[in-house]
Amino acid sequence: MASKEDGRTGYLIIIWESYEHHMKLKKDPAYPEMIKSLGLAVSGPIDVQHVDFDATKALDAPATEISVITLKADTSLEDFHAKSTAVREHLNNEPSCHAMVGGESRENKGTYFSLTGWDNIQVFAGRTYDLVERNLVAPKSHIDLTAKDEFKEFVKNFLEIADIDVAHSNMVKYPA
């Protein structure tokens, strides 16, 4: 489990009516100039991924967790779907969780993106992942969701089948 909360990585999430609508826009003669303008706001590469899911509830929450999940080579889709469904159902029953949604990247098969909406980022403040013991460790003074043994077990089981990069953000919504 890694985190890209380095103050340098940005996320731009665009909700398209459909994938085909984006592909149609890419054919517009003005599209290259739009992308060039976007490039002025970033100092590194732009990585465009298309994932089909309804992100509205997760993005409408005060805080958003962005997870990039890469399946390990020997992981079956059945195992992945079973474990991801268990995590999603557990989190969607947590009072501080607004929604957890996810889907597979069209560009990178075996890579999944997940968005989870939270009341606040502090739900996860201070957590670390012990790579040797392969479990989550929360500071004793910080009682939150990640300190629950049940949640630790979900994450431990999930990390057996996938690598996860996680970031948290207070997303800003702009009108279309």
Description:
This is ABM domain-containing protein. The protein has helices spanning 19-26, 31-39, 56-60, 77-92, 149-159; strands spanning 2-3, 63-71, 97-104, 111-118, 128-130, 135-137, 162-169. It has 176 residues and is an alpha+beta fold. The protein has a domain at 51-169: Alpha-Beta Plaits (2-Layer Sandwich). Helix 4 (77-92) runs antiparallel to helix 5. The two termini are 34 Å apart.
Whole-Å distance between the termini? 34 Å
- Based on CA atoms alone, the radius of gyration comes out at 17 Å
Task: Based on the coordinates given, report the CATH architecture of the domain at 51-169.
Answer: 2-Layer Sandwich
- Biggest sheet: strands side by side, in what order? 1-7-2-4-3
> Which word captures the global form?
globular
Q: Helical region count?
A: 5
- Count all strands and give the number: 7
Poorly predicted parts? 125-143
Protein name: ABM domain-containing protein
Organism: Sphagnurus paluster
How does the SSE layout of this entry go?
Layout: E1 2-3, H1 19-26, H2 31-39, H3 56-60, E2 63-71, H4 77-92, E3 97-104, E4 111-118, E5 128-130, E6 135-137, H5 149-159, E7 162-169
Parallel strand pairs: 1-7
Antiparallel strand pairs: 2-4, 2-7, 3-4, 5-6
Helix pairs in contact: 4-5
Q: What structural keywords apply?
A:
alpha+beta; globular; 176 residues; Alpha-Beta Plaits; 5-stranded mixed sheet; two-stranded antiparallel sheet; ABM domain-containing protein; 28% helix; 7 strands
Offer a concise description of the structure.
With 176 residues, the protein is α+β, with helices and mostly antiparallel strands. It is built from five helices and seven strands. The protein has a domain at 51-169: Alpha-Beta Plaits, CATH 3.30.70.100.
